[in-house]
Design goal:
Elements: H1 2-29, H2 33-37, H3 44-53, H4 60-72, H5 86-121, H6 126-140, H7 143-157, H8 173-199, H9 202-209, H10 214-222, H11 227-252, H12 258-267, H13 271-299
């Protein structure tokens, strides 16, 4: 286990270094960062002075060496848009993203387990077809469209919920519903198919033949055996939601999280903030994957790590 953790730690460092290297090259090689960050009316002298001020006048290799050295101390420089350290901006926005993603995924999980189980109890029955149909509908609808639809219905017409921001607890309801829809549909489908497979296995029939109550067979055996594929999907959903879906949803609802910050930083040509956001998300993704591997091992010691 210790050897595995050291190996995974080394792999994680290489993955994060690879991601940040790609981002570094993209922000330097493709396009002119200085022109993006200065007004169109800036003169050549002003551009040269600004490039010297932020270190973009040095050779690319020198810039990368400084960049890699700063990563060790989590010094991403100063946001050119907000005029304060990038670390401070990320520290302000990251909790907002984690709050939104956590509420959405926990809600989706709490609903997916009973819905998937109910659907699996009578395959092709009315409830099964209804749940599967709703799941397919949830998977097929783009999140930005769902978000706009919810705003029109619940904010504009019914005037029940706010449209944007995070001033009160009510502000999280619509973005969390929007963000939870796709994970809910996918997790429900997975629980349903896994439960159908488990309920048709011999050990379930044997347990029932010996008189074990169906609820105990369902909860103590069949549902327990669906945890590993479910956790695999849940970890993937966390990564996908934090690094992808939340960017769209935070933009639609003006939720002040990391996704909205990334979009605003790109629009303003704030390459230091873009680098910091990408590095932070890459680290979170790597940490989640390592934690999931350890959890899998704790749930089922037969799983080989490495």
């Amino acid at each position: 286990m210790r050897g595995y953790l050291l190996n995974r730690l080394l792999q994680s460092v290489l993955v994060v270094l690879g991601v940040t290297t790609v981002v570094f090259l993209v922000t330097r090689v493709f396009g002119d960062p200085v022109s993006l960050m200065l007004p169109l009316s800036a003169s050549a002298e002003q551009k040269a002075a600004f490039a010297q001020q932020i270190g973009l006048d040095k050779p690319l290799l020198t810039q990368f060496i400084h960049f890699a050295g700063d990563l060790v101390t989590l010094d991403f420089g100063e946001s050119l848009w907000q005029r304060r350290p990038v670390v401070e901006v990320i520290a302000d926005r990251l909790p907002n993203s984690l709050l939104l993603v956590s509420v959405a995924l926990v809600s989706a999980t709490l609903l997916a387990i009973p819905l998937g189980t109910i659907a699996a109890l009578r395959p092709d029955g009315f409830l099964d077809k209804t749940i599967v149909g709703a799941g397919l509908l949830g998977l097929s609808m783009p999140q930005f469209w769902v978000g706009l639809l919810l705003i029109v219905v619940f904010s504009v017409n019914l005037k029940l919920l706010p449209t944007s921001g995070m001033a009160t607890p009510a502000h999280i309801i619509l973005p969390a519903i929007t963000l939870a829809l796709t994970p809910l549909a996918r997790q429900t489908m997975l629980i349903r198919s896994s439960m159908i497979d488990e309920l048709n296995k011999q050990y379930v029939k044997t347990a029932r033949a010996k008189g074990m109550p169906f609820g105990r067979v369902l909860g103590a055996h069949a549902l327990r055996n669906t945890w590993i594929p479910f956790l695999t999907l849940a970890g993937w959903e966390f990564v996908l939601t934090l690094a992808g879906y939340s960017v769209v949803v935070e933009t639609v609802f003006s939720w002040p999280g990391l996704g909205l910050t990334a979009i605003q930083a790109i629009q303003r040509g704030d390459l230091f903030l873009v680098q910091g956001v990408v590095f932070t998300i890459a680290v979170l993704i790597v940490v989640v994957n390592v934690v999931l591997d350890i959890v899998f091992r704790m749930i089922d010691p037969r799983i080989r790590l490495g």
